[in-house]
Amino acid sequence: MVKVSKIKIKANGPKVLLWGFFLLTLFSFSTSANSPLFLKWYGTTCVSITDGQSVILFDPYLSRPSFWSVLFGSEIKSDPALVRKYIGLFEEEKNKAIFISHTHFDHILDLQNLEQLWDYPQVYGPMNLKFIDATSENETRKNRKIMTTDKVISVGSFKISALQSQHSPLPLGFDFAKGKLSENINLPTSAYQLKAQESFAYLIKHPSGTILFQSGAVSRESYPVEYVDTLLIGIASRKDQDMKAGILKKLKAKKIIPIHFDNFFKPLSEHITHLPFMDSQGFEKLVGSERIHWPKLFEKIAL
């Protein structure tokens, strides 16, 4: 409950307006600065983080084509009904932004439909971002921005910066859809056309806590911090366990939330299962199970 005390101000128009603006700004800042953070996981590396005033969302992927359609290069597409059903409008949050770790299909497939649903918020990501399902609406609104490691993006009380990283190694040393794009790729298309070259991890700072979002890529550079309240880390690959051990030695984290461990070829309406080559027990031994919070689909997690 918020209690507002009455303040007597002499009826002088400009002064009343000035005092009103000052108090409203002070109240708004105080509310946002002290707001708790909540995270929701939508499968793979798609997560939202909100303080009630602003929401940032990473790697929009909900439509989840089948394994066979991806393997054989069939056309895949986004389902706008699923985007609306599972992510929704976030009507309470006045500030919205989307961040992309890299441009493979399982990190970007539903971007355009989410942009339309949220009325074209700012979107930040690697260079390939500007070539994937770009529309005249994107060009007119100029809502897609190329992220670099020297930028700090403000979204309400959130401050987001990027760390250069690399894609985790795939089974059998397979390089999936790797490369630089030079022309627009429109959906529906084959997953092999949604190529990735750069990859980012994101450091998120807020008065209520510090979070590192790492989709499964392993940073090439030293982290600018030694402690975070929450580490979101992709564990799809067994091959980079030693690198993850190095991360966890360098970076102290109060809470660790694994992501990218689910079978992302199965629809969200079905029971979520782990990827067949994912080593959850090995990860728990590496980290210590007492710090790990295994997320459930659409669970609201207090950070």
- The overall strand count is 16
Query: Would you identify the CATH architecture of the largest domain?
Result: 4-Layer Sandwich
Mean pLDDT: 83
User: Structural class per helix/strand content?
Assistant: alpha/beta
Query: Oligomer, anyone?
Result: single chain
Q: DSSP helix count?
A: 8
Distance between the termini: 22 Å
Q: What is the fold named in CATH at topology level of the largest domain?
A: Metallo-beta-lactamase, Chain A
Element order: H for helix, E for strand: HEEEHEHEHHEHEEEEEEEEHEHE
Tell me the domain tally.
Answer: 2
Strand content: 25-35%
Strand order of the largest sheet: 7-6-5-3-2-1-16
- Which descriptor suits the 3D outline? globular
Q: At the first level of CATH, what is the class of the largest domain?
A: Alpha Beta
Specify the CATH homologous superfamily of the largest domain.
Ribonuclease Z/Hydroxyacylglutathione hydrolase-like
Give a quick account of the main beta sheet: strands, pairing sense, barrel closure.
7 strands, mixed
Rg, nearest Å: 21 Å
Low-confidence stretches: 1-11, 21-31
Percent of residues in helices comes to 10-25%
